[in-house]
Amino acid sequence: MINNLEGVCRKPKLRPSKRVYPPRKCKKPDCGLMFTPTDKRQEFCMPQHRIDHNNDLRTVREQPLKEFGKKLAHNLEVLKKIHSSLAAIGQTSFRLQLLQYEIYNFGSFTDKTINKDTGNEIEWIYNYGLEVKDHDKKTFIIHFRKSIN
Prior knowledge:
Order of helices and strands: EEEEHEHEEEE
Distance between the termini: 54 Å
Shape: rod-shaped
Largest sheet: 5 strands, antiparallel
């Protein structure tokens, strides 16, 4: 193995077999040092480079989910805020402009149901739901459900 800081070869590990593999370049993009693998599947000069490489790949792969989670969290906070404000002043509905002011992300929700009374869709973000009350007047209602099923 190669010491990444000094660029000097370390004493190779003891091998259970007598096989010797040709030197290869470390797969970690910012390393690229040549090393002698102890197994034909070995792609990295040291375990930490394998760990770093896989962590970087996971970060890239999970980025869209992380962004969606941020949108959901923001929408949840907006609905909580509006719901508590409406309850404090005794109102049940509000206009589209309030959601636009709060930069609500339409299309980011956890599930949908149909309101049996009105026949309208309710877009839920965990336990807060947003329903269009009147399409023409662009008014909405926020629902609260105690359990998420």
